[in-house]
Design a protein that fits this description.
The protein has helices spanning 18-37, 58-70, 91-102, 108-113, 116-124, 127-137, 179-186, 210-222, 312-321, 333-337, 342-354, 372-378, 383-392, 396-403, 416-428, 435-450, 458-474, and strands spanning 2-8, 42-46, 78-81, 148-152, 155-159, 196-200, 227-230, 237-241, 248-252, 265-272, 277-286, 291-294, 307-310. By secondary structure, it is an alpha/beta fold. The chain folds into two domains: 2-320, Metallo-dependent phosphatases (Purple Acid Phosphatase, chain A, domain 2), CATH 3.60.21; 323-474, no CATH class. Strands 1, 2, 3, 10, 11, 12 and 13 form a seven-stranded mixed sheet that branches. It has a six-stranded mixed sheet with strand order 4-5-6-7-9-8, with helices on one face. Helix 1 (18-37) runs parallel beside helix 2 (58-70) and helix 15 (416-428) packs across helix 16 (435-450).
Amino acid sequence: METNFIQISDIHHHFSNYDSLKMRLMLEEYLKELSQGTRFDFVLITGDLSDKGAGFNDEISGFLDLILSSLNLTRKDIFIVPGNHDLKRNVPRKYVIEGIKASLSKDELDEALKTEDTKGILLESFKDFFEFYKEYTEEDYPRESFHFIKTKGKCNIIHLNTCLTAYTSNEEGTLLIGRQKLIGCLSALKRDPSKINIAIGHHTIDCFHPDEITSIVANFDDFGIDMYLSGHVHKPKYHIEANVHTPYINLVSGATHSDDYAVGGFISAKVAFDSHELEVQYHKWHNVDEYWSTTNDMGRLAKSGTLKHKLKKFEKRAKQLDVSVDLTSLRDDIEDKVRIDEDEFKQFIIDFHQHPKKKGEITSYQTKQKEIEEKFDNMRCSSSFEKMFLDYAQYFTAIEEILNSTSYIEADKKEIVSELVIETYLGIHSKYDSGDVIFTTMVDAIQKQYSETLSYSPAKTRRYIRILTCWSIYDCNIFNENKVEA
C-alpha cells in the first residue's frame, strides 16, 4: 500500500513575469505526465498563494484547479495553509505583535489570543484568506483553532498557521507558533501507528524564535510527527531531525514563481507502507531552457534523484506485527500435546467459576455473530492460529454443556469466564495489531491471575485458558475489531 502526494508552495500568483507565467503553464503538462505513472492522493499548498497581501481572485482558483485536474483530483483533495503574503498588514497588527514579542513570557502569544480584542486584530489580517478558503474548499477555515487536523486516507494532515506573528520583512528567527495552541492541536492526534502524521506550515522551523524551535521539535517528537513540509524561503532543501526519539524529516519546497532569488520547484512524495519508507523527489524548473524535470542536486542523500527516508514508527510497528507466536511451544511440549480429558476440563471450568479473582458486576453483551474466517482476516491472524482454533473447537460443546446448566455452576457465576476474557481483551487489544499477539498476551495475563488459585499443572492451566479464550472468540465476545483498516 502507498500514498502519493504533491507539495506546492509560494505561488505568489500576482507576480506574473514571463518566467513565472511559462513555469506555471508548463507545470500543468508536467503534472499530467507524472500522473500517468502514479496515482496521486492529494495536494498540499504551503502558503503564499497571493503576493504582498494583494488578495485572492479567480485566477488563483483557476490555477489550483488546473493543478488538481492534471492529477485527476478534485477540490476535496487539496489542503492549504496561509503564508505571510496571504495576510494584510496594518498598524494595529504591528503594535500588537511588537508588544507580544517584547514580552519575556513564553506564553505571551497564547495569553494574547485569549483576549478577544487582540485575537480579533490578529485574525482580521487573514480575512481575505479565510474567505478564499471557504469559497474554494466549501469549508470554513477553523480560525479559532489556529492549528487543526484533517484526515485523508491513512494520513493525518496537521495544518499549522505559522504566520500569527508575521507582519514585516526580515523577521526570521522571531516568529511565534503559540505553544499552547500547538500542543492543544497535536494532543488530538490518535495514537495510531498505522497512520502517518504530516505537518504543514508556511515557514521553515528555523524561522521561529529559538525557544519556540526547541518546543516545536520536542512536540513533533512527542506526538509522532513523521514529516514537516514548508516553503517561504523559495529554495528547496531538507533536514532530518535526529536529536529525537523517532527521527522525522523537514521538507522545504521551491517556489512556483520566478525572480532573481527564487528557485522554481515543487515536491512529490510517496509513502510506501510495506517498506516503511518515504520517497521524495524534488522537481525543478529550468529557466534557461524552459522545462520541468526531477533534480539530483539536492545533496548526497538525494544524488540518485530520490531522497529516501525510513519511517521508524512503521518499522517499530512491523517488528510488533512480526512477533513470532510459536503455537507449537504454546502447547507446552509433551503434556500439552496429550488429548484433553473432557471430565477434567469440565471440572476446570467449574473450578474456574468458583474462584473468581474479579468481583463486582461487569456487563457482558454479544455482538451479532460474524463468520470466524472474517474475524481471522480482520484481526490479522496467522494460518497457524486458525489451525489451533479449529483443534480447540471440538471442546466448545463441553463449555456450553457446563454453562447451559445450573447443575454445575450457580446461575450468578455463569458469566465469569466471559467477563474476565472480555475485560482482559479490552485492556490490551488496542496496543497490538496482530490477533496472534493479542491472543498470547491475553492468555499470559489470565494465567498469571489464576496461577495460584487452580490446582492444575501450569501446562494444563495454560491450555485450558487458551480453549476458553478461543470459545470467547467463537461466542463473539472478542476479536470483533478490524486491524486491517485501523
